[in-house]
Amino acid sequence: MKLAITALFITLCAITNAQNKGFDELSRAYQSFEFPKVILMADRLLAEDENLPDSLKVEIFLMKAVANYSLDQEDEVRSSFIEILKLNENYEIDPSKISPKIISLFDKVKREYKQITTGNLQNEQTAIDSMQFVKYPVFDPDKMITEARIRSVIFPGWGYFHIDQSTKGFVFSGLGAALLASSTYFIIDTINKEEDYQNETDVNLIQSKYNDYNDSYKTRNILLLSYAALLIYTQIDLSFTELVPPQTLSFSPNYNFKQNSLSINLTVQF
Residue 175's domain spans which residues? Predict the structure, then answer.
C-alpha cells in the first residue's frame, strides 16, 4: 500500500514538474517577445496535456492571444479570448501586465460572448418550449356533437366536417346547396308568375297563367319542405352519431444544459 501511494505521489510530482517546465519555457519565450514560438509552444502544451488546471490554461491562452495580437492575427486573438471565457466567463485581465488595446478587445469579445451564450440559452429554451407539442383539448363528444348540430342548422352538412365525417359532410352539403338554390329560384319564379296571373286581363289566358303560378308555387313548397327535411334529418343523424376518441401523440423533451444533450419521451395514446 505504501509503495502504491509513493508511486502515485512520484507520478503526480513528475506530471506537475513537466507542466511547470513547459509553462516556464513558454513564459520565457513570451518575455523574450518570441511570439511565433509562443504560439507553437502554447498549442503544443495545450494539446499534450488536457489535465492542465484551468488557471494555467487561462494564462497560456492569454499569452497566445498577446502573441497573435502582436502578429496582427485578430481572429486567433478572439479565439483565444473565447477559450478563456469558456474557462472563466468573469475573467478580468490585469491592466498592469497587458496593453489597454488588448484589454479593450478582450472586453469587446467578452460582451459578444455573453450575448451569444445568453441568446443560445434563450434559443434552447425556445426550442424546448416549441417542442411542447399542441395540447389536445379534452375529448368531449357531447360538446362536439352540439357544435356540429349548430353548424348543420346554419347549413346542412357543415357540422359533419367539425366531427371529421367529411363524406357525409360533402353529401349533405351538396344536397343542401342544390335544394337552397332551387328553392330560391322558384321563390322568385312564384312571385313573378303570381304577378303575371294577377295582372292578366285576357280571359283566355287567365287559367293558363294561374296554372303556371300554381305549379311554381307547389314546386317551391316541395323544395322548401325538402330543405327543412334535410335539416331535420341531419339533426337526428348527428344526435345518434358516436364519436371515437382521436389518437394522441405527446412528447416530453428533457434538455441537459451541462451535457448539452436532449432526450425525448414519446407517448402514443389510443
Answer: 145-239
